[in-house]
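Researcher: We're teaching a course module on how sequence relates to structure. For the next exercise, students receive a sequence and then see the predicted structure as tokens, so they can try to spot secondary structure elements on their own. Here is the exercise chain.
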Amino acid sequence: MSDAAKPSVLFVCVHNAGRSQMAAAFLTHLAGDRVEVRSAGSLPADQVNPAAVEVMAEVGIDITTATPKVLTTEAVQASDYVITMGCGDACPIFPGKTYLDWQLDDPAGQGIEAVRPIRDEIRQRVQTLIDEIRAPRT
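Model: And here is the predicted structure for the students to work with:
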């Protein structure tokens, strides 16, 4: 990643319906256009988890138009940071990328009360990621 290039982040989970959607929305919300944001899933669902949509709305972030996308080799190649959230070995590995694996509970099938703490942990991790992206590499 050159200094002039905008850093890019890809969030990956199996269904691209909960964790990765919330993470992408937080990064877009908190970093604005300073970071290119993608999300995808190894086996994408038909729609974003309604509980994820609801808990994000509680913090003023609308993900009602988000749609799960399939993970592609091109998306990984085009990203500086690849953050997995339970996609296992489905994520291709390329040299020169920063790979992080965030161990987070899966919100699939969970109610709002269970998804809120997942949302809050994702927000904290995204803020830490923004700080890491801004820090000069030595």
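Model: If you want an answer key for the exercise: The first strand starts at residue 8 and ends at 13. The chain is about 35% helix and 15% strand.
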